[in-house]
Structure prediction request, 317 residues.
Amino acid sequence: MEKDHLMDRDCILVGAPVDCGKARQGCLMGPDAFRVAGLAEALRALDVTVHDAGNTSPDPVDLPEDPHLHALPQTIGWTRALMRAAEDAMGRGFPIFLGGDHALSMGSVAGVAAHAARAGRPQFLLWLDAHTDFNTPQTTTSGNLHGCPVAYVTGQPGFDAFPDAPAPIPVENVCMMGLRSVDPPERAALEGLPVDLHDMRSIDEHGIAAPLRAFLGRVAAAGGALHVSFDVDFLDPAIAPAVGTTVPGGATYREAHLVMEMLHESGLVTSLDLVELNPFLDERGRTASLMVELTASLMGRKIFDRPTRTFVSGFAA
Prediction:
């Protein structure tokens, strides 16, 4: 099957100010922070046509709160709304979901997978994150549902209160990179499953290019659609502090750009999440600006296109 080319498709920005997947607030400001950091302008500079669809709103859900789970009705409402928004945006171009916490991926990923199923294409998922997010409402000890989206979109049991994922992604079509914080129930659930897992120890030993190249080869061989879900905490907090789930030892600036450049060159990516940006925790917008840079690399910006940044006392000038 002929590869898609990112820059041949209109970019649809879908604001998803989801802030219910965990107790710590601030991610609802994420979509506007990406806009202020110049995401649309960076993409247009690459001759990409950009349409900003504004911010999505959650569906109303008449369901009592669950004392074990944080904001269950709101998360269900967001899942329903974003599932529809994702299917619609996939029909119009290349959607970028501006988060918002990672609970938004229950809707965004389920929606893009439904679109791929209708098109007769297998859906693949690249999860760039410090966490596997493979908990379920029964196994989460924190009650934070932003730790559950991969389990939901792969059809794991325990999501009875949620709408059924219309096209569950086979676990063998999931690749996780950057892992360094996995809960014991997640570890137990993943044992024996053919999920492609790469923690930072593995990346330190073998590099990031070889496992990513192997995964992209499988996507290409299957004629698959590839959704990339990019959590800020994939990055080392020294370069990306604006996240409430910081875990030391994340991807470096260069590793992250390499990932994005390889994804662009593959021509396989069909949709993107940018999640867990909490502008309240940022330092003069440096994390939002870095995420914009990385998105531009995904969309084709080369090293010689990248402006030199001056740093004063550790901040970008």
